[in-house]
Amino acid sequence: MHKYILSFFFLLFLCLSSYGQTTSLTLDLTSPHEKERELLLALRHKKNHPDLQSVKQTLDSVDQVLYKKGYLSFTKNKKQQDTVLEYTYILGNPIRQVILSNKLLSTTIQQQLGFLKDSITLDFESLSPLLQQYAQQLDREGLGMSALQLSNHSIQNSTLYCDLQLHLTQSRKLNHIAIQSVNKVPEKIIKQITKRYLNKPYSEQLVSNVTQTLNDLDFLKQYKTPETLFTEDQTTLYLFLDKANTNTFDGFMGFSTDENEKFTLAGYLDLALNNVLNKGESLQLYWRSDANKQTQFDFKSSFVYLFNTPINLNGQLNIQKQDTIYQNTKLVLQVGYAIQYNQNIKIGYQSTSSTTNSILPTMENFDSTFYTLNYTVIRKRNYLPVFPVNYSLDALIGTGNRTTEEAKESQYLIQLQANKNFELAPKHFFYINWTYYALFSKDYLMNEMYRFGGTQSLRGFQENSLLTNQLNLINTEYRFLVHPSLYLHTIFDYAIQEYKPLDQKNTLYSIGMGLGFITSSSYFNLSFANGKQPGIPFSFDNTTIHIGFKTLF
Predict the structure, then answer these.
(1) β-bridge mates for residue 134, sequence order
(2) Class of domain 21-90 (CATH, top level)
(3) Which option is the CATH number for 303-552: 1.10.260.40, 3.10.20.310, 3.40.50.300, 2.40.160.50?
(4) What is the CATH topology of the domain spanning 97-167?
(5) Fewer beta carbons below 10 Å: N end or C end of the chain?
(6) pLDDT tens column, 336-382
(7) What is the distance between the alpha carbons of residues 206 and 136, in angstroms, rounded to a whole number?
């Protein structure tokens, strides 16, 4: 019995070994001339191949390189011995330069191409980029279907003489944009966003611009590349769109009792809804209550392209409560104009009402109002879902006043947030975010201070544990893309905090590392950061763990 078992495993091993073996082909390139052999060797072609198709692809690539170097009349002969394929090249004399004439071009085309001299002289290797440049120029003029070619060739002393000729087609403009969708999408908004491309000269660049504009819409995805229908007198671009699942949810909830046996609710909720009403709207709800008896409630809404115009409306209700010490209630209303979908300018009004039970002289009941001007822009990077934003800017200035029982003070407000994700090399990125906040006033109250710290601001510190009237904060990350949906990153945050009520100006920073990944139904972020404050020695015991998990639906 043991003998049969051993025989079975031996046969299985032989089968698996045979299955794992593949025939390897070796490709050698040579020439009877030494200089030509050196040139072929310098091409560093792929030598080992699994099949003949792979060999053919390498030979085609080598031939294209030789053509670009001016070897237009080379020959090659094949010789095969077992699994070795040897190709002997005879390259001949290369063409070193080209004299290109414009005599077959009309004056108008000469001006469009910038080809105003009777002829130009250039290296042969520069010919292909020049023709590509001319083709792109014609494409921008709506003449992308026209054909450029070289005619009347002659070769003398390694110089190619030829005429540039254009087979001209009628200039086309984009007349219509048609939408094809699987599920219902907000067609009126899409047409409002893309109408600026209508009646523009049709080109591949124009189609690319339309695609990029649609990529900036969070609530849409393109399930197929755009297609163009050309008729005798019309050009129609078809867009293939569907709803994208960009709604997110994250949260947990717990119950406990404090030292006075009073029932308390703790936890957080982070909910974002996009295009639920099929109007391109955005609704965000954030609630957090923690062990430090700090409660935050934030609700934001945004409605775009109202009444099929570039007008949008934004609102926010924010409530911050610190135990029974104070509570701030903030209301924000903004009316905006969409320069483009991803670029808006807004005017706004915001009011804050604060009540406090504290007897500290730096805390008082107050009401404040501001009139604001806000500019926002965001650009997506859709080929990397794990890094969806390429760059963004949100800048706001405001003027207003704060009223207490004793006085009314004029105040000025500046808020700025800018970030950029630089692609250093494939898989290597550098992310930087700059946050600036400043409240200018004759005097300050503790309960009107800006709160920061935590995952979304200065990592390595507890959520909203720091106060300031002026903040300069820089967040940086070196990001390494392990997989298109997984990355590792470092953390280095640096902040300068000014706190006028106590006449303090502190330098804060944090270091750490983390990771993030995305699946078809969720986002996950995990980071470890250690924050450093003045007068407190560095200790690993102060390391803060930040965890973020959002479900897509």
Answers:
(1) none
(2) alpha beta
(3) 2.40.160.50
(4) Ubiquitin-like (UB roll) (3.10.20)
(5) N
(6) 999 988 999 999 999 999 999 988 888 999 999 999 999 999 998 87
(7) 12
